[in-house]
Design goal:
binds iron/sulfur cluster; 10 strands; 2 domains; 6-stranded mixed sheet; Rossmann fold; binds zinc ion; alpha/beta
Length: 309
């Protein structure tokens, strides 16, 4: 029997990259501690923050909700609010919404839902359908990313949030760095890390408190805690360059355990050095909605204009 190195009980997990074997209790504690470490290391929160947690209803965001709600209890001046963005993806989002609402009710966390249809007049499914009709190659993940960011900005303004916490784990953050390199987008590369302060006034800082936790450990945490989470994948998953980057990094990690932590550290250092020399885009106001923009229109209005909404 493999024993926990901290207490001698039966181990449920062996960390290949550190050699550590842990029982259920110490594994769960180690994950909570990693979140606390990330918050401290990257100075993610102030004691009086109003934190909006982007809650999809998947295992990652439910895990973050649970851990942050525990941490929040020690900071009576802080406020945690969950936000679910409903993109309007048939057969996928409805189950996740119910799971997210139930989890918030259980933990007594206020929960707000922002839907693409109500905010922008179209669901993601409708955008994809129209793209086909007007002869464009549909790019659902691009539309989704742009409009979700806008939806979260609208939520931040309405709910007076000072931070947005997302459940990106170690794998996600490393993938994002690599993806932006692959796109040749250096400005995005330097803003891919665990804390992204916006150049735009009124847009809250985005933080990723699970940046030090590999995806498989988040999955194990959710399973050991018995979280009910959205079991199906988004039907648009797999159509993006991110999927190829994910496969590449997973292959590297399986042959060279801990390479993801090394990549994270290297990317952070490169990004920090580059920050001095990369000029940030000039801030303007979108001529349609007044949101911060780098051109005449913000990305969301630019996208919606193509679909003539
Ligand atoms: Fe949005 Fe793409 Fe993720 Fe689906 S897979 S939720 S379309 S980003
Ligand atoms: Zn706009």
């Amino acid at each position: 029997m493999l024993k926990c190195q901290r207490c001698g009980e039966e181990a449920v997990y062996k960390r290949i990259y550190s050699g550590e074997a842990l029982c259920r209790r110490h594994f769960l504690k180690s994950i909570d501690d990693r979140v606390r470490l990330a918050i401290k290391r990257y100075k993610m929160f102030s004691p009086d923050d109003r934190i909006g947690l982007a809650l999809s209803g998947g295992k990652d965001s439910l895990t973050l909700l649970y851990i942050l709600s525990k941490i929040e209890r020690a900071f009576p001046e802080a406020k945690l609010i969950a936000i679910t963005v409903d993109e309007g993806i048939k057969g996928y989002r409805r189950a996740a919404l119910r799971i997210a609402s139930e989890a918030c009710e259980k933990l007594k966390i206020p929960h707000h839902i922002y839907g693409f249809k109500k905010l922008f007049g179209l669901t993601l499914d409708e955008l994809v359908r129209i793209a086909f009709e007007i002869g464009l190659k549909p790019r659902p993940c691009i539309y989704c990313g742009i409009l979700r960011r806008k939806a979260l900005n609208i939520a931040s303004e309405e709910l007076k949030l000072s931070k947005i916490a997302t459940a990106h784990n170690l794998d996600d953050v490393v993938q994002t760095y690599m993806l932006n390199l692959a796109h040749g987008d250096i400005y995005r590369f330097i803003t891919s890390g665990p804390v992204t302060e916006s150049k735009f006034t009124g847009v809250p800082t985005r933080v990723k408190p699970m940046v030090l936790i590999p995806e498989r450990e988040v999955s194990l945490y959710a399973a050991l805690m018995g979280f009910k989470f959205q079991p199906t994948q988004c039907p648009y998953t797999g159509s993006s360059l991110r999927s190829d980057v994910r496969v590449l990094i997973n292959r590297l990690e399986s042959k060279h355990p801990s390479i993801m932590f090394t990549l994270l550290k290297s990317f952070e250092e490169i990004a920090n050095n580059l920050k001095q020399s990369v000029e940030s885009p000039k801030v303007r106001k979108c001529s349609v909605c007044g949101s911060p923009a780098t051109g005449d229109l913000c990305k969301a209005c630019e996208l919606l204009a193509k679909f003539k909404v």
